[in-house]
Amino acid sequence: MTDQDVPHPPVPATQEPAGIPPELARLRHSIDNIDAALVYLLAERFKATKQVGVLKAQRGLPPSDPGREERQVNRLRELAHQADLDPVFAEKFLEFIVAEVIRHHEALAQDHGTEA
Q1: What is the model's pTM?
Q2: Please, what's the b/e burial string for 24-63 (b: 16 or more CB within 10 A of its CB; e: otherwise)?
Q3: Domain regions of the chain by residue span
Q4: Neighbours of 17 (CB within 10 A)
């Protein structure tokens, strides 16, 4: 069993100081839960992109795929629009994540001796 297989105890939501209005405390608790979900979703995304990076490295494919990245940006902008989220923010968020993924893929390519 690896360290990743061992379930970790949940990280409690931040504790609010006394005197905070209950509605504010409730909303902040909701935000804490959403933040936790985002972290776990990002972890799952990076597990999947690591597998992609390994496959690319094994096959000598380049770490980045500009066509795929452009399609993803367009898709995310549309999803953001549907969700009433600023598409520019959503695009910047995706660009940040993709840049990190590419950095990981470049490292994997170096490890496999298939620098692109």
Answers
A1: 0.75
A2: eeeeeeeeeeeeeeeeeeeeeeeeebeebbeebbeeebeb
A3: 20-111
A4: 6
CA distance 86 to 50: 28
Q: Which two tokens stand for residue 12?
A: 């409690």
Beta-carbon contacts of residue 111 (< 8 Å; ≥ 6 apart): 57
C-alpha triplet 37, 42, 87: angle, nearest 5°? 90
The pLDDT tens digits along the chain (116 residues) read: 455 565 676 677 677 788 899 999 999 999 999 999 999 999 999 999 999 999 999 999 999 999 999 999 999 999 999 999 999 999 999 999 999 999 999 999 898 876 54
**Would you identify the CATH topology of the domain 20-111?**
Chorismate Mutase Domain, subunit A (1.20.59)
